[in-house]
Write a structure and sequence with these properties.
The structure is a single chain. The protein is of the alpha/beta class and about 425 residues long. Strands 1, 2, 3, 4, 5, 17, 18 and 19 form an 8-stranded mixed sheet that branches.
C-alpha cells in the first residue's frame, strides 16, 4: 500500500507539541507533498484547495514515533507477524517508523534479503519499515557479515538482534570496520553464559517463586566490555536496551570520556518491575528480565536527565505454543508497538516524566541517532505525525490489537492515551473509530 499523500492535508484545531523545545502552540497544520508547510496560530483557517481536513478537537499533535527495535516474523515466521500486520499495529500505536530486527529465516545477513524487505514493506506496509542487518553471518557471532554491503543495500544499522556477540575479537573488528564508513553497531548486552538457566531477575523474588535468576552482571559485564572496545576502536555504538542502575553508571562514564555511545530502554523496563510477573505471567518473561523497582526508577530518572536516549517497544510476537507453557520453559518476548505510547503516558500521568521528554525519546532522538529526517515538528520536515488524546482512558483488550500475536504484558490494563490519527508522508494511515 502506498503511503504517499495525493492531496494536501490540514490538521485543524490541534495543540502542537515540539519534543525538542517542549513548546506547545494551538492552531492548524498544513502538509503538502509529504512535508510540513506551516503550523500554528498564523495558519489557522489557511486551507489549500482540495485539502483533506482533520479536526483534532484540541488533541496533541506531535511527530510520529520511531521504534528502533521490533521483531517481525517475515520472512520465515509469518504466523507470528508480517510486515503488513506489524505496520497496522504500529500505525494504531502512533509509530510511523519501525526498525525491524534481522532475526528472521533466513536472517538479514545478505543484501538480497535487505532488498526483499524494503520492497515487501513498500508494497504491504502502511508505515515506514526499515531493515536492520545482521552483524555476523547467520547471527552466529563468529564471523562478521558483509556489513558495508548490507548498509549500502539500505540497512539502517548492524545488530544481531536478540543475540549477543560474545567473541570480543569479532566485536572489535566490526566496530573498527563500521567506523570507517560511519556505520552504527547496536548490541544486545547480555552474556548468555552468565544468564545460564536464568528466567527472571536474580534476587529474593526469584527465590520465592522457585525460578532461576539472571544476575544484573550479565548485562553490565557485556556492556563494560563493549565500551572498552569502543574506546579502543573509536566506533559508533548503541546499547539496544539497558535495564539496571549499574549500567547507567557505565554509560555515564563512557559519555564523560567523549565516546560516541548512546543507549535505549524498553518501555517494559520503564513501566513494569519484577513484581508484575505475579503468578508466573509468561507474557512478562523478557530479555533483559524485568528488574527491581529501584532499577525501574533509576531508568526513569536517567531518561528524564537525558542519559538514556531512546525508548523502544522491543516488540516480539510469540504464538500460543511458545507462551502458554510453564514460565521457565516459555519464549522471551512481548508485543509492544501498539501500546508503547499509552504505557509511556503512565509515567507522565504519575508525574515521573514530562510529556515532551517522553515524545523526544520516542521520536526526535531515534531520528537523530539513525540520521533520519523524521521525528521533528518543524517546517519542511516530513509530515509523519500523530494526533492523540493523552487523557482518554481505556482498558486493553488483546483481541482488539492489530498484531497477529496477542502476548501483551498489558492484558486487561487500565491505560490512558488513545491515538486518533496517524499520518505518514502526509497521508492518514490510521484513524480511531
Amino acid at each position: 500500500m502506498s503511503v504517499s499523500a495525493l492531496q494536501p492535508l490540514v490538521l485543524a484545531n490541534g495543540v502542537f507539541l515540539d519534543p525538542v523545545t517542549g513548546r506547545e502552540e494551538g492552531g492548524d497544520l498544513v502538509a503538502e507533498a509529504g512535508v510540513i508547510r506551516d503550523f500554528g496560530h498564523a495558519v489557522r483557517g489557511s486551507r489549500p484547495d482540495g485539502a483533506t481536513v482533520v479536526d483534532c478537537r484540541g488533541m496533541v499533535v506531535a511527530p510520529g514515533l520511531i521504534d528502533m527495535r521490533a521483531f517481525v516474523g517475515e520472512p520465515g515466521a509469518e504466523h507470528r507477524e508480517t510486515l503488513a500486520s506489524a505496520s497496522r499495529a504500529a500505525a494504531a500505536g502512533g509509530v510511523t517508523t519501525v526498525v525491524c530486527m534481522p532475526d528472521t529465516n533466513p536472517p538479514v545477513d545478505d543484501p538480497a534479503v535487505v532488498d526483499f524487505l524494503i520492497r515487501r514493506a513498500r508494497d504491504t506496509a502502511v508505515v515506514r519499515m526499515l531493515p536492520a542487518a545482521a552483524l555476523t553471518k547467520g547471527l552466529h557471532g563468529t564471523e562478521m557479515a558483509e556489513i558495508r554491503l548490507l548498509t549500502e543495500a539500505g540497512a539502517v544499522f548492524l545488530t544481531d538482534g536478540a543475540r549477543s556477540v560474545t567473541n570480543a575479537q569479532v566485536m572489535r573488528r566490526a566496530l573498527t570496520y563500521a567506523r570507517d564508513f560511519g556505520g552504527l553497531i547496536v548490541h544486545h548486552c547480555e552474556d548468555p553464559y552468565l544468564v545460564g538457566d536464568g528466567v527472571m531477575n536474580e534476587g529474593e523474588l526469584a527465590s520465592r517463586l522457585g525460578l532461576h535468576g539472571a544476575p544484573r552482571e550479565a548485562e553490565t559485564i557485556m556492556l563494560e566490555r563493549d565500551l572498552r572496545l569502543v574506546r579502543l576502536t573509536g566506533g559508533r555504538y548503541h546499547a539496544a536496551m539497558i535495564s539496571c542502575a549499574d549500567s547507567l553508571a557505565i554509560i555515564e562514564r563512557a559519555r564523560s570520556e567523549g565516546l560516541d555511545v548512546t543507549c535505549g530502554v524498553s518501555i517494559n523496563s520503564l513501566t513494569l518491575n519484577e513484581n508484575d510477573i505475579g503468578p508466573y505471567r509468561t507474557f512478562l518473561k523478557l530479555s533483559p528480565p524485568l528488574r527491581h523497582e529501584d532499577d525501574r526508577l533509576a531508568m526513569v530518572e536517567a531518561l528524564a536527565d537525558g542519559l538514556v536516549d531512546v525508548i523502544v517497544s522491543d516488540h516480539n510476537p510469540q504464538d500460543v505454543e511458545t507462551k502458554r507453557v510453564p514460565f521457565a520453559e516459555c519464549a522471551d518476548g512481548a508485543i509492544g508497538l501498539e501500546t508503547m505510547l499509552a504505557a509511556g503516558l503512565r509515567l507522565v500521568h504519575a508525574g515521573e516524566l514530562e510529556l515532551a521528554t517522553l515524545l523526544r525519546a520516542m521520536s526526535t532522538r531515534p531520528a537523530e541517532i539513525l540520521g533520519l529526517p523524521q521525528g521533528r515538528l518543524r517546517k519542511g520536515a516530513p509530515a509523519d505525525l500523530i494526533v492523540f488524546d493523552a487523557e482518554e482512558p481505556f482498558v486493553l483488550d488483546p483481541a482488539t490489537l492489530h498484531s497477529k500475536s496477542k502476548n501483551t504484558p498489558f492484558d486487561g490494563a487500565r491505560l490512558q492515551g488513545v491515538v486518533h490519527h496517524t499520518i505518514v508522508d502526509g497521508a492518514v494511515v490510521h484513524s480511531a473509530g
